[in-house]
Amino acid sequence: MASSIELVENTQALETNQNNQSQKKLLLIENDQYLSKSFAIHAANFGHQTTKIRTGEVLSQELKCYLIDHRPNMIVLDVGFADSIQLLIIRDIRALYDGLLVVVSSKNSEQEHIDAFTLGADDYLLKPINSRVLMIRIEALFRRQNSKINQVELASLTVGDVCLQPKSQKCFINGEVVKLTTFEFNLLKALLEHQGKILSRDQLYSSLLRRVYNGVERTLDVRMSQLREKLTQAGMQKNQIETVWGQGYMFNNISS
Questions:
Q1: CA–CA dist 96, 60 (Å, integer)
Q2: Are 248 and 203 a contacting pair, CB within 8 Å?
Q3: 149-205: per-residue pLDDT in tens?
Q4: Could you tell me the domains of the chain?
């Protein structure tokens, strides 16, 4: 089934003083009107922009481009149309998107619940769900995310002999400053934040280069090589950036 994109409601309340930073972009993925109707009920007070996309078993090119170009703050996915195999759409979304993902389902299945979280869901809600409760759950997720982001931005990220200070955009190895470009810093930060986990090229292209990886381009590989060289020349010995062939890259602490 081809995807179809439509703006459901620009729901910024007229009598609030919310600024553009506080207004979130939500993407609803559904094949009926269940989510759209729930959000429409609370449109006046919800205060966020909501867009709907219809999709089939796999992500269309249109949907992939939307995820990268528009960078929604949250995806709410109704898997009422899906069976357990089609739940793999969550994995496909996660290859391009690292934001909040809420799954809504009409299937009261413990296994589906487990599979959804394993594939990358942040929350799992069973239909029918009270529309007001849905809004409250969404705002609670945003609050927890904002708290986590604030803590990360204030804190230093230290793994082995590498230390990053996100707020000042500085990198240290064994206490000495290493000069990195903005892209190199953000690339290293992403690797450190996911230490011991593989980051796919799809994820890195989406989050850092804001485009879909075409399977051929070598831009990321070249920049990764340059980053490795800078870190090695600066004396990094307790960590390594590992290439996992066919999958992506992983930052490992090898001193322990």
A1: 12
A2: yes
A3: 555 555 678 888 899 888 888 899 988 999 999 899 999 999 998 888 899 888 888
A4: 4-151 (3.40.50.2300), 156-253 (1.10.10.10)
The pair of three-digit structure tokens given for residue 245, joined into one six-digit string = 């062939």
Per-residue exposure over 118-156, b if at least 16 CB sit within 10 Å of its own CB, e if not: ebebbbbbeeeeebeebbebbeebbeebeeeeeeeeeee
* pTM score: 0.59
Give Cα 235 to chain centroid, integer Å.
32
CA atoms within 13 A on the CB side of 152: 11
Burial of 41 (0-12, 13-18, 19+ CB in 10 A): middle
- Amino acid at position 67, single letter: L
